[in-house]
């Protein structure tokens, strides 16, 4: 349920020593006739792949050619370790790899470790956090004429993730209404997860849902990358070289049971804790 502030939570809990990354946020718009937008991709990123980075490029092309939005910022937001999805490496490594990938990707992508370094946060709350940081704390952006503009925060996700929004028991209705009604989403087509199937039950929010087809089919997934690594196969050119080097240097993903804290060579796997139903969804299998 949204609070009087319009957020689904009354206050945000920050991880220790947290500061919101905004070094690549474009504070002055190029075209004052457009609506400024920040893209937020939530997910495991275990590890981040070129497909995750391609999502942003596809959205950039789509937005430029088909909408009146202007992208002023773009973020990867890796999920908390408490999400407990199989294959979820500990957040320190996932955030480090996302940072290496973002560095490699030109000068617009950023990584927000806010949800990664704390307890599980629902996506509705994550989007509220971005809205709060960008619009309330930083004060939004300006046009070249110095006029203030509030930034529209939007979710960027693959069609497999959006399909889960029609599965009973995964997302709460009020959160869906908040995510799709207040914010909106750009959906990237994903092999094996149809766009129609993904949005059939979300028609109520159709005006805030933008569907982006993949013109070059590519079904790289983190699951496949982890499988290759366990089998001693090369993953080069499926993810940035800096990320491949990081994985090799830290001996990551060699062990099938490795998840959460079971990250470095020689470290014991962490014991799995039962999920708390109140704040944490079942990690849903996504396309692999
Ligand atoms: N090949 C792809 N095509 C379109 N979207 C993708 C693709 N890979 C990942 N995504 C999207 O990226 C976001 C984060 O994905 P996530 O980190 O869960 O990657 P994944 O490859 O699905 O992981 P895993 O294989 O571990 O389930 C999700 O919205 C997901 O739908
Ligand atoms: O907020 C929710 O209720 C919710 C329900 C299911 C999934 N999510 C988010 O969706 C993302 C799923 O990532 P993945 O790796 O399972 O595809 C992750 O960021 C989760 O926090 C969020």
Secondary structure elements and their pairing?
Layout: E1 35-43, H1 50-66, E2 69-78, H2 91-103, E3 109-111, H3 123-137, E4 141-142, E5 148-149, E6 152-158, H4 159-163, H5 173-183, E7 185-188, H6 195-199, E8 209-212, H7 222-230, H8 241-250
Parallel strand pairs: 1-2, 1-6, 2-3, 6-7, 7-8
Antiparallel strand pairs: 4-5
This protein binds adenosine-5'-triphosphate and nicotinate mononucleotide (NCN).
What attributes does this structure have?
binds adenosine-5'-triphosphate; disordered C terminus; Rossmann fold; alpha/beta; two-stranded antiparallel ribbon; six-stranded parallel β-sheet; 288 residues; binds nicotinate mononucleotide; 14% strand
What is the CATH topology classification name? Rossmann fold
Mean pLDDT: 89
Number of structural units classed as domains: 1
Q: Summarize the helix and strand pattern as letters.
A: EHEHEHEEEHHEHEHH
- Widest β-sheet, arrangement of strands: 3-2-1-6-7-8
Q: How many strands, what sense, and barrel or not for the largest sheet?
A: 6 strands, parallel
Percent in helix = 25-40%
User: What is the rounded distance between the termini?
Assistant: 33 Å
Low-pLDDT segments: 260-279, 284-288
SS field, number of helical segments: 8
Structural class: alpha/beta
Q: For this structure, what is the CATH homologous superfamily? A: HUPs
Outline: globular
CATH class value? Alpha Beta
Q: How many individual β-strands?
A: 8
Bound molecules: adenosine-5'-triphosphate, nicotinate mononucleotide
- Amount of beta strand: 5-15%
Tell me the Rg in angstroms. Answer: 18 Å
**What is the annotated CATH architecture?**
3-Layer(aba) Sandwich
């Amino acid at each position: 349920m949204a609070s009087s502030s319009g957020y689904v939570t009354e206050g945000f809990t920050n991880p220790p020593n947290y500061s919101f990354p905004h070094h690549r946020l474009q504070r002055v718009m190029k075209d004052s006739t457009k609506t400024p937008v920040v893209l937020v991709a939530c997910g495991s990123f275990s590890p981040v792949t070129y497909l995750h980075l391609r999502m942003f490029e596809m959205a950039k092309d789509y937005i430029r050619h088909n909408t009146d939005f202007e992208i002023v910022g773009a973020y990867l937001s890796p999920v908390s370790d408490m999400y407990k999805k199989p294959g979820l490496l500990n957040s320190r490594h996932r955030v480090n790899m996302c940072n290496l990938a973002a560095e490699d990707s030109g000068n617009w992508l950023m990584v927000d470790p806010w949800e990664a370094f704390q307890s599980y946060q629902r996506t509705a709350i994550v989007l509220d956090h971005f809205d709060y940081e960008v619009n309330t704390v930083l004060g939004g952006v300006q046009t070249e004429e110095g006029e203030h503009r509030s930034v529209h925060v939007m979710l960027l996700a693959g069609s497999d993730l959006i399909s889960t929004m029609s599965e009973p028991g995964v997302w709460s209705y009020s959160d869906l209404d908040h995510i799709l009604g207040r914010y909106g989403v750009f959906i990237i087509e994903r092999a094996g997860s149809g766009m129609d199937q993904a949005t059939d039950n979300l028609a109520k929010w159709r005006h805030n849902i933008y569907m982006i087809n993949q013109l070059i089919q590519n079904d790289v997934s983190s699951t496949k990358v982890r499988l290759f690594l366990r089998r001693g196969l090369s993953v080069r050119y499926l993810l940035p070289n800096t990320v491949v080097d990081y994985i090799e240097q830290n001996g990551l993903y060699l062990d099938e049971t490795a998840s959460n804290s079971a990250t470095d060579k020689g470290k014991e796997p962490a014991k799995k804790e039962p999920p708390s139903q109140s704040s944490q969804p079942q990690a849903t299998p996504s396309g692999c």
